[in-house]
Automatic annotation (TrEMBL), chains A, B:
This is Pca regulon regulatory protein. The lineage of its organism: Bacteria, Pseudomonadati, Pseudomonadota, Alphaproteobacteria, Hyphomicrobiales. Pfam families: HTH_IclR, IclR_C. GO terms for molecular function: DNA binding; DNA-binding transcription factor activity. GO terms for biological process: 3,4-dihydroxybenzoate metabolic process; negative regulation of DNA-templated transcription; positive regulation of DNA-templated transcription.
Length: 253, 253
């Protein structure tokens, strides 16, 4: 179906932009703040915020707007409509317990991975991860696996669109070096990351395929970096990840 | 600020309604489906869905629309803007490990509780719970605690607005009986539920207060129903919940 200009509701797209403008760093926004973050003019930002308030998605204290729990109906409406988290969670719980390490499943949303399920055994990362949490794809093991499933030109487009921050001294940020890593990931069937997201954290990931052989998600194990080499980590955890992947094959939509 | 009709964007409120129309039961909606679930006319539902597609929040296969991972930016934008999950998670992990039972924190959204943090030790419930999951307030221990923090007339309004399903033979559904339970909860400072949500599941909950003494969330322990009486469950877990509550007091916004 061809979408024509008159088929669109401008206010809806703008309002969603305003909801996305709220963040951990900016949980409360004035009308001017919302206008600055979204690029919408002040009058439009104001109408969006007032509409969100009137519909119960935002609260207003006379100066600042903040989002209400009602907004959770939107995003979790999406998680709830995904069979993936419900299917993988029991496998994840079992895997995580058997190897005594944290394990997660994520999907790709443009340049980021989104956690859809997680089984945590101990806290290794400085940030807390939960379903819905996001990390950049270029520097994570699950991101590399998900990028490896795309055609090269699409992978390159996403890498170019990524804010490729040097998160640690080990983070690969050069496009050619990343492309080489991703091609290697595709060939060997798994990705491994040694402290590229944050110091002290290692991770290995494999793709999860549906019955048609399409990569629909990534499964990883994250663990503390110790004195032993990455080879030991890979030989210890990749077999468990691959066997979880085999069990899940054909069950995923 | 008084909100006038001309301050509102009708399309935004309608579009959010359409996003909420997607659910686990109905993850894919045709234009007619969306119109039927939301009560919007067909032309409006169509424009909302096309706008969501054009902005990347929905995918269209020629007949059905489904939500994309981009929608997770909306709801998790909200979870991410809440300091609560990040503050309580470490306490929850510690509590859950020390008592070897699952523990959760939730907040109230109208007639439902919304999980914002969870530490799971073993699977007791038939459904899987994660941050963003919802359960009705009237029949859950955390819901009773959160309803008990409201003025009586507000509690009654929410109970009347709840679809009070007889989930098990033990579920209290009568408004007067529920009001009496909630008043008792307020007086004793905790709520206990014996298999009202589902058979085999018990739960005890306490309110979490901020520095001004306002109830901002509820903390619970959920466990399998065994031969021992609820009194044993209460005397075993309420002290741990109360001491976690004391530790958190003053840290919550």
């Amino acid at each position: 179906m061809e979408i024509k200009e008159r088929d669109l509701m401008g206010g809806l797209a703008k309002g969603l932009k305003v909801i996305e403008a709220f963040s951990l760093e900016k949980p409360r926004l004035s009308i001017s703040d919302a206008s600055a973050v979204t690029g919408l003019d002040r009058a439009t930002a104001r109408r969006c915020l007032l509409t969100l308030s009137a519909a119960g998605y935002a609260a207003y204290d006379g100066k600042f707007f903040s989002l209400t729990p009602r907004v959770l109906r939107l995003g979790t409406g999406c998680l709830a409509t995904m069979p993936l988290p419900r299917i993988v969670q029991p496998f994840l719980d079992q895997l995580s317990e058997s190897i005594d390490q944290s394990s997660s499943v994520s999907i790709l949303d443009e340049t980021e991975i989104v956690y859809v399920a997680r089984a945590a055994q101990r806290r290794v990362m400085s940030i807390s991860l939960m379903p819905g949490s996001r990390l950049p794809a270029y520097c994570t093991s699950m991101g590399r696996v998900l990028l490896a499933a795309l055609p090269d030109n699409e992978t390159r487009r996403l890498l170019e669109a990524s804010p490729r921050t040097q998160r640690t001294e080990r983070t690969i940020t050069d496009i050619s070096a990343l492309m080489a890593e991703i091609v290697a990931t595709r060939e060997r069937g798994y990705a491994s990351i040694d402290q590229e997201v944050e110091l002290g954290l290692r991770s290995v990931a494999v793709p999860l395929l549906n019955s048609r052989g399409r990569t629909v998600a990534a499964l990883n194990v994250g663990l503390a970096a110790t004195a032993e080499g990455m080879e030991t980590v890979i030989s210890r955890y990749i077999p468990s990840l691959l066997s979880a992947r085999e069990e899940l094959k054909g069950m995923l939509p």
